[in-house]
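Q: Convert this sequence to structure tokens.
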Amino acid sequence: MRIIPGRWFYITIVIMILITIQGCKNEKVQYPEGTIAAVNGEVITQDNLDTEMAMARQQFAGMDQLDEEQLTKIREDILDNLISRRVLYQESKKKGIAIDYSPVEERLSEIKKQFPMENGFENMLDKIKLTEDALKTQLLEGMTIQKLIEQEVINNLKISDEDTKAYYNEHTDLFKQPEKMKASHILVKAQSEDGESVRAEALKKIKGIQQELKEGGDFAELAKKYSDCPSGANGGDLGYFGPGQTVPPFEEAAFALKQGEISDIVETSYGYHLIKAGDRQPEVITKFEDIKEKLAQYLKQTKIEEEVQKYIEELKAKAKIEKFLSEAKKQDVTE
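A:
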């Protein structure tokens, strides 16, 4: 009997095709060895992470004292930063944003000037395992990303006078200038580690100076003659200071004085003091007009940081991001 292809034959073919397609979809993408993340199929490698870690070590010497848990957190943060940069650069290419090489060469020249010693620039690149061409690529990508952020975020941000005024009115405490006073002092050094005999001698000396003041001695002249503080050369003048700018016992005694009054002997961690109160400036609130421009700049910068982060998160939400850091060697350049 001759079999004639019909409806069931075509259904079978369609099913086979669908199974084949599904199999392709489920097949895991094979990335090159050393891949620790992929952004829309574009890989980030262990070498990329090692370079960033090496840069971080150059900037923050204290990293050598961190434990493995802290270093792991830094690696994760750096990887997230690499992913963010990759997402932004991909978006800049979608937007058709391009930077020519002239500003890149200018920036590279500026960087080289920071290493005046012979081979200093080359040695720096060697330490962070980066070639000059790779550095140029990083600079180009960074400038392109900056142009994207300016175009898509910064240029659209406006901080109005009303916004600035509203912030000022809601945060008046931030613009208060606390009461200040001017004072002079005479110091006879006597620290806790000096021992009882040294401290007793210092106390005896300050009492003698106090007696000279009571007998009509000039405070400034006695400060020049006896004070162990560098201010003694200026008659003990400390200039203006406000709360929190001196040690508590000194501050408490000074602010309790009326202008022209001289304190009793005051003991601090520095030794023994005699304090003479000078002029006072009452607490004032900086006027809006005097702070308006700086405040507007601060608010805009804060808003930029918020909006840039929001923009990055939106791009990342639309991107296919895969992380394999836990599968990769968690190492970094330490030499």
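Confidence is low (pLDDT under 50) at residues 1-27, 327-335.
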